[in-house]
Specification:
Number of helices: 0
Structural class: mainly beta
Shape: globular
Radius of gyration: 12 Å
Distance between the termini: 19 Å
Order of helices and strands: EEEE
Helix content: under 10%
Strand order of the largest sheet: 1-4
Length: about 80
């Protein structure tokens, strides 16, 4: 099983728009962090879709070790 690459050791603070779908990078290889750019091709990873239920600020995981993907759960504190 491949391990994701840590993109950064802190979350990405993102303003999301109600009804819009965002595709979180699970592999850590994307150049468009925290979002997928297809860099996972050839791995077991897939982008994770998140449809915003309301417009708000959310914190997408940057370390890729979260237990609550796509959101930060503080796992970066243990890396």
């Amino acid at each position: 099983m491949d391990k994701p690459q840590c993109a950064q050791k802190e979350p990405y603070e993102i303003e999301v728009e109600e009804g819009k779908t965002y595709y979180w990078c699970a592999c850590g290889r994307s150049k468009k962090q925290p979002f997928c750019d297809g860099s996972h091709k050839g791995t077991e990873f897939k982008a994770l879709a998140h449809k915003a239920e309301k417009s708000e600020t959310v914190y997408f995981c940057g370390c890729k070790a979260t237990k609550t993907p796509p959101f930060c759960d503080g796992s970066h504190e243990d890396i």
